[in-house]
Amino acid sequence: xxxxxxxxxxxxxxxxxxxxxxxxxxxxxxxxxxxxxxxxxxxxxxxxxxxxxxxxxxxxxxxxxxxxxxxxxxxxxxxxxxxxxxxxxxxxxxxxxxxxxxxxxxxxxxxxxxxxxxxxxxxxxxxxxxxxxxxxxxxxxxxxxxxxxxxxxxxxxxxxxxxxxxxxxxxxxxxxxxxxxxxxxxxxxxxxxxxxxxxxxxxxxxxxxxxxxxxxxxxxxxxxxxxxxxxxxxxxxxxxxxxxxxxxxxxxxxxxxxxxxxxxxxxxxxxxxxxxxxxxxxxxxxxxxxxxxxxxxxxxxxxxxxxxxxx
Length: 311
Ligand SMILES: Nc1ncnc2c1ncn2[C@@H]1O[C@H](COP(=O)(O)OP(=O)(O)O)[C@@H](O)[C@H]1O
Ligand SMILES: [Mg+2]
Hints:
Blueprint: E1 6-9, E2 14-19, E3 35-40, H1 43-54, E4 58-61, E5 63-65, H2 68-79, E6 82-83, E7 88-90, E8 97-103, E9 106-112, H3 126-130, E10 134-138, H4 150-159, E11 163-167, H5 180-183, E12 188-189, H6 193-200, H7 205-213, E13 218-222, E14 228-232, E15 235-239, H8 252-265, H9 270-284, H10 297-308
Parallel strand pairs: 1-4, 1-10, 2-8, 4-6, 5-7, 10-11, 11-12, 12-13
Antiparallel strand pairs: 2-3, 8-9, 13-14, 14-15
Helix pairs in contact: 1-8, 6-7, 8-9, 9-10
This protein binds adenosine-5'-diphosphate and magnesium ion (MG).
């Protein structure tokens, strides 16, 4: 038995979420906001917290600065049950920060990178890999130091018996490069619809899924208010979204990943794992930030039963 179900190799930063009339006015104009909160940010950390909340044993490796934001993140992740003993603290660089300006259904994000992109594949030791049965990487495009060594890291993980998953998130350079070889080493690929089409260089989702599912073990695509679509070989499965009152969608994709991988790693049938994904993604939108509304398995099961009874 492995010590951990999941090892997450990823980026660490808090989000400062500002809500209300957040459009700044320069010329030293001071505006008053409705709300401000410092929460666990970064796709990888939000994913790790979602998986731990569902009951998976989760270890995390990444780089944090020796500063207030770094300490905040490590304490907050530990409080949510994520093992952070492998996190590297770098006193030479500040922890990254995203400021999220939340205006109704839309948002603008300002990010100071700090050491968000500092983790290298060589820092993920074989002993750490051996302690888990699955390796997840998120924010591929943001994690620029990890990128070149990622095929080798996934190869090492697989040779040690781990399965692998990847959620690239958006490519700020819009180039979407370097994928075919990497995808052949991925058991579970977790893009959203726009990312899936961009990576496959296909105009529509069906063609994109056909291309990418020929490379990765399976592809589970997040489709926002349209739920999710999965393809493995010739098998195609759709899951409808749950009805939600969206507060903000920060971390919806990461919470979906946590739900889907919970089912996948528990040996559930794929349709049920996909349903848990859409439930976890949907529920996470009901509070500000990425982690606040992530469900426990018990909370998610209420929705699973409703969906399975056709209600
Ligand atoms: N407006 C919404 N209504 C219901 N479910 C949603 C909504 N937005 C997101 N979700 C759920 O969260 C999942 C992930 O959200 P999505 O926005 O597609 O991912 P990403 O954050 O990666 O772009 C979706 O597959 C869906 O299940
Ligand atoms: Mg995403």
